Amino acid sequence: MPDSAPSSLPTRFAGDPARVALVLPGGGYSPARPLLHFARAVLLRHGWTVQELWWQLPDGFTDFGADGQVAWVERQVAEAVDAERGACRLLVGKSLGSFAAGPAADRGLAAAWLTPVLTLDHVARALGRAQAPTLLVGGGADRLWDRRTADATGHEVLELPGADHGLEHDGDPLGSVDLLRQVVERLDRFVGSLADR
Q: Are the beta carbons of 91 and 127 closer than 8 angstroms?
């Protein structure tokens, strides 16, 4: 069951109002989970305003098919970007969030995609046409990751050998923390490189 946002949990974190980053969850990976929690911390450290999206997938979402799922995610993200009135300049998304790679490319938004679904042609094609700075992070043991596809996009790539779709090593919490550190360090460098955007 996907996480939903408790009413007492903040979803917006103030920084520079002219530089807003949207944090996009996965299908069952909320912004409170480690990769996105620390992504928010990195963004705040670099002075960004952060708006987290906490979505509740509609009933029957798995029956939508790839095109329907992509359209649903694109709609959620487009509405959130539009709500920022031109201040949104970065997307950071986990897995299902990468279904918004098309709007990111079309709007010239920088993006950091954590475990993008590279086995989906729509995502791979959108990443290939993206011109803004983009970081792709995936696990070598993730069946939804494809290193050749990632490299073919021409974007910055971090692959974590043996990591699963959660960017963890199953049954190895300490090893998983080491992987998390690598992701946070790379994300920190990437976000730092966007200072002039």
A: no
Structure-block tokens of residue 168: 């963890």
Count CA atoms closer than 13 A to 8's CA, side-chain side. Answer: 0
To 10 degrees, what angle do helices 65-83 and 121-129 make?
Answer: 40
- Per-residue pLDDT of 32-77, as tens digits, reads 999 999 999 999 999 999 999 998 898 999 889 999 999 999 999 9
Residues linked to residue 13 through DSSP beta bridges, in sequence order: 50
- Rounded-to-integer distance, Cα 115 and Cα 98, Å: 8
Decide: pTM greater than 0.85.
Answer: yes
Question: How many CB atoms lie under 10 A from the CB of residue 10?
Answer: 9
